[in-house]
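so im writing up the methods section and need the NAD-dependent epimerase/dehydratase family protein record in one place, dumping it here so i stop losing it
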Amino acid sequence: MYEVDTSKPVMVTGATGFVAGWLVKGLLESGATIHAPVRNPDNIDKLASLNKIAERTSGQIKLFKADLMTPGSYAEAMAGCGVVFHTASPFTTAVKDPQKELIEPAVEGTRNVLNTANATESVTRVVVTSSCAAIYTDAADCAAAPGGVLTEAVWNETASLDYQPYSYSKTLAEKAAWEIADAQSRWKLVTVNPCLVMGPAIGGVPTSESFNIMKQVGEGAFKRGAPRLGTGIVDVRDLAQAHMAAGFVPSAEGRHIIAGHNTDLFEVLSQLKDRFGASYAIPKSTLPKWLVWLAGPSVGMDRKFVSRNVNVRWEADNSKSKAALGMTYRSLKETMEDMFQQMIDAGAIKAA
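--- predicted struct ---
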């Protein structure tokens, strides 16, 4: 459906991240030259996995020193590039200062990258890793969407600095991206909007919310059950393919919901039962909403969040990603089993 243009380098921000790792792998296997701006190009350990991939593929990776919050610091890495993939953005809920730890890196980092694209004549397309968080805050928002289903036409209007600041940061960052893109006509902006990303990582186990959930499962945090917390799930490997298509399908445009499954937390974790249930405390039952609401604050879960997400159906329309990007999605069982096994192999979950 598309061919990776290897006549110019491509730039990937956040190249050592969970999502970008698989994107970098795909680009290298396609023979692309990747310019990877990183904070510390001398950090051999953090970059080892990417270098190993480059050694056994036809592509190559070149490192550049850059900082997300320093205007103009991406100029050297972006020089001569045709497509820019901006994947770098903090993903965490454990923050003390959401303005400084989430909003500023997400928004100012996006502006920094896209303003540099404006100043780099070779750039023809920018792919920004946004999120379904820029479309909704809580599963309850699905019911308020037209037809009760999230689409690319919907924008998040319920997050704030005080409630779900991560979602707020992704909303502000994507809006900033479109504002910059719409003010010029030389390069095209395409965004991918994934839901919760799961699956195995390249180069060890990253510190992200997805892996924290899996670690909790391994430690028995859900042995008494798991809530039916409405969410969408996409495999990180499928998300990498979505990025590739967004970068190189000539007709790709606008926003794209990247969601393999409309599901909930209990159903997600239940996928581990057949393979790991005999050795690990995989949840076998659901927790009642009243109990989750009552105990929520003691485990860092806001009661408003419980009310708006537990036993609430999450529903998103991924048809544009299939039609425009040619997406197909692997099974939820494959995603979860591969992720859990990798964490066991890496020592992040103690072997039973």
